[in-house]
Amino acid sequence: MSAPRTKKFDICVVGCGFSGLSIVSHVVRLAKRPLKMVVVDPGTHPGRGVAYSTPYDHHLLNVPVAKMSAFENEPSHFLDWVKEIGGEDTIGPSTQPLEKRFAPRRLYGEYLSAQFDALLRTPAHRLSVTHLRTHAHAAIPQEHGFVVRCADHSSFETSTLVLATGNSAPADLGVDLPTDHVLQNPWAWEQLASLAQRGNILIVGTGLTMVDALLTLQAHGHAGRITAVSRRGLLPHRHQYEVAPTTFTVDLDEARTVRGLVRQLRTHMRRNPDENWRAMVDSLRPVTQQIWKSFTGDEKSRFMRHPRPFWEVHRHRIAPELAAEVDAMCAAGTLEIMRARLRRQSIRMQGQEIAVELETRLPSGNVENISRHFDAVVNCTGPDTRLDHTRDPLLRSLREAGLLQPDPLGLGVEVTDVFQLRDIHGKPNRRLYALGPMCKAAAWEITAVPDIRKQTQRLAAELLRD
Ligand SMILES: Cc1cc2nc3c(=O)[nH]c(=O)nc-3n(C[C@H](O)[C@H](O)[C@H](O)COP(=O)(O)OP(=O)(O)OC[C@H]3O[C@@H](n4cnc5c(N)ncnc54)[C@H](O)[C@@H]3O)c2cc1C
């Protein structure tokens, strides 16, 4: 009896959030020769990933409709799709032109699902795209590629492996509490919704994920008080619908150091007090990756230590409607944003409540300890980018085999300019690639759709080069 034949693919993409969907779409569009591709993702809605699987209309995109096309060279693709399905009415406020509005991420998820369905209809004589609804658990290197093993015990061979495993859950808070009192994964929507019945809630983190979480709790009728804490207590700034252009142009030579970059921005703002800082921040967008790449390792870690949180809140802004809701909650006293450090060792159950000690710095510079009681804790510290901490068996298997190298800043993996992974000796692997958030160490701004779609277009050309 002959042994069962192992399935063979040319390209395997692990993970089908926006990055996975986008690379497959670009390969399908560009390929001139027949190819067999496989996409491995356990999700029920391929293409949506963490960001666009939300069922809620109050979770809005943080990029306007006109800039969310899945395709770099078809800028109005999403806008046209919204018009085609008659989706304008689901996107407010109607006083603004559609292209400037912020659509629900749920609607964007539907758009991505439509793109995925179109991929599966690709004529089979040209290309085949197979979707395996499972987790990839290990990739074993072979002479001409990898054998990929999956959680459902299936396995196959692939010549090229693309990792598009995206946003991992936040780092564990490391608090010793019963599991029904602490939500470690803020994207587990049903569990989050069930916390709306609790009274006072502590949210750890004051960024975009916190905004998602508090609006969800509010939508499910939360009647208690929410306290959100972070070391600096910074909230994401708001977008504005009308932003006049800036006269600022960055001097890239001077921007090789963090100090040089910040100095330019500050000087320009001082000399042009009437300009909108949003236009200045946005003017850096086309050259942000270039600036990041020109930083030395020391400058990169300086950036991480000092201006990073300020950059995040100015760069990743929220829709004006959401900002207004956050303001209203603060004004009503149902939300308190605190600049404080959580003393993890001091978090404990006290009867049915969670007793927490928060360490806050007063304007005088003195430190004050504040004791508070809560009914639940939600972890909104954002995706954990440290590969050393990953729980993903596939990434662990590649790490153990020495095939990937975490970067020194804990942002993801080391990749080349064409996104090939470097092994522990720094050698690029021409059969192993990474996409999206995992490539932060190489590019810094590589998590939003407009950046990822550029990356996938380039990678598709690279994969089809041979
Ligand atoms: C809550 C949230 C909101 C955001 N909002 C915006 C926005 O409005 N605009 C914007 O431009 N960007 C936004 N972003 C940025 C976002 O990171 C990107 O837009 C994009 O969605 C990232 O896609 P991804 O495919 O790289 O990762 P993900 O969306 O995380 O998808 C990764 C996929 O890989 C799968 N996977 C992981 N490991 C394995 C494995 N071993 N085997 C099989 N499958 C695996 C996961 O199940 C998941 O489906 C948001 C991010 C988050 C987290």
Task: Characterize the structure shown.
The strands form two sheets. Strands 1, 2, 3, 4, 5, 6, 15 and 16 form an eight-stranded mixed sheet that branches. It is globular and about 65 Å long. A hairpin with a 4-residue loop joins strand 5 and strand 6 (155-163). The chain has helices spanning 18-30, 77-84, 105-120, 189-194, 208-219, 258-271, 277-283, 288-294, 297-305, 308-315, 320-332, 393-400, 440-443, 449-463, and strands at 7-14, 35-40, 127-132, 136-142, 145-150, 155-163, 182-183, 201-204, 226-230, 335-342, 348-350, 353-361, 367-374, 376-379, 420-422, 428-434. It has 14 helices and 16 strands. The longest helix is centred in the N-terminal third of the chain and has 16 residues, at 105-120. The protein has three domains: 7-168 and 384-463, FAD/NAD(P)-binding domain (3-Layer(bba) Sandwich), CATH 3.50.50; 182-237 and 317-379, FAD/NAD(P)-binding domain (3-Layer(bba) Sandwich), CATH 3.50.50.60; 254-315, no CATH class. It is an alpha/beta fold. It starts with 6 loop residues before the first strand and ends with a helix. Helix 1 (18-30) crosses helix 14. It binds flavin-adenine dinucleotide (FAD). Flavin-adenine dinucleotide binds next to helix 1.
Short description:
The protein has 466 residues and is an alpha/beta fold. Helices cover 30% and strands 20% of the residues.
> What would you call the shape?
globular
Binned strand content: 15-25%
Low-pLDDT residue intervals, each spanning 5 or more residues:
none
How many H/I helical runs?
A: 14
- CATH structural class of the largest domain: Alpha Beta
**H/E element string?**
EHEHHEEEEEHEHEHHHHHHEEEEEHEEHH
**Measured distance between first and last alpha carbons:** 37 Å
Oligomer: single chain
Mean pLDDT: 95
Task: Count the E strands.
Answer: 16
The description of the largest β-sheet is: 8 strands, mixed
Q: Which small-molecule ligands are present, each listed once?
A: flavin-adenine dinucleotide
Rg result: 23 Å
SS class? alpha/beta
State the CATH architecture of the largest domain. 3-Layer(bba) Sandwich
Specify the CATH homologous superfamily of the largest domain. Answer: FAD/NAD(P)-binding domain
Fraction of residues in helix: 25-40%
